[in-house]
Amino acid sequence: MNLSAFIIKRLMNMIPTLLGVMLLVFVLFNWVGGDPAYILAGKIGDPKQIANIRHQLGVDRSYWIQLWIFFKQVCTFDFGRSWSTGELVSDVLLSRVGPTLTIMVPVLILETLLATLFALWVSYVRGSLTDRVVMVICTVAMSISFLVYIIVFQWLFGYRLGWFPVQGWADGFLTNLTRYAPLPVMLAVFVSLSPSLRLYRSFVLEEMNHDYVRTARAKGISERAIMLKHVLRNAAIPILTNVGMALPGLFVGSFLLEVFFSIPGLGREVVESVNRSDFPVIKAITVYLAILTMLANLLVDVLYRWVDPRVTFK
Q: Could you read off the pLDDT of 109-153 as tens digits, one per residue?
């Protein structure tokens, strides 16, 4: 199967998955989420006011009609207006995705590169004191709460040393990237590096135990060349799989960063939308994350062929 046919087949297979996600989201918001009219009306809302709000929101219609409206919203990528602010949901998401990407893209790139390089290094000196010390440090780092890192980093680099601002966000991309993003990016990379390093180290060590590595050593190829040209290429496949699985999780992990660093991104918008029961915004972000997850998996499958030409599409 060629690449185009493979992509078309995978895109077609995403349709029933997306329908299942839509149905699950609809059920959760309508049977578990409660009636948003009571929250929007406030404590002094009377029955007529609540009924009027329910009619304006459309939640007084039958479930089948609401499900059909939700289906059309997903197909047209038009989720209407926010129940709380009256803004178009599309405008809300477009204005929030920029700050999130400014933080998360550097985190993804730096964390992947550093974890891979360190994994190759500790695998190269496997069994040594350096290897054991690094693994102990990773275990200790993974045992500490993320909130503790936020407090320590803000106090040390923000208040004590004064290298970075603790909170804030500007309108210019370069200003945000060079002034406000470095501290949360450094924090996120530091926290995610330990589990990724341990995982990638296991991938590299597994490849080093295969016969082709012993054959390369018997041919007199240097250990460094074996690590870079042979082991890394084969270990890149599970590494890519892990990156693809972690990609949607980066947006989820941005919640705490954006709240504590006052970054106006998708993470903080989700928290605020949950607090004010702004269901259109929450449903839109949920559907988009599901689509992002499926597209990330497709991209990883395509990259397998680029990393290893022996991989075939079926």
A: 888 889 888 888 888 777 788 888 888 888 888 888 888 888 888
Output the CA–CA distances (angstroms, integers) from residue 54 to 12, 33, 35, 40, 290, in the order listed: 36, 14, 8, 10, 28
Q: Which two tokens stand for residue 217?
A: 């050593």
DSSP run (H or E) holding 286 = helix 279-307
**pLDDT score of 308:** 67
Element (H, E) at 10: helix 3-27
pLDDT cut 90: percent of the chain above it = 0
Closest by CA position to 177, among listed 190, 189, 159, 164? 164
Q: Over the stretch 27-63, which tens digit does the pLDDT of each residue have?
A: 777 676 556 666 665 555 566 666 766 666 666 677 7
Residue 189 confidence (pLDDT): 86
203-241: pLDDT as tens digits: 888 887 777 777 877 877 877 787 777 788 778 888 888
Rounded Cα–Cα distance for residues 198 and 10 (Å): 32
Say how many CA atoms lie within 13 Å of 16 toward its Cβ: 3
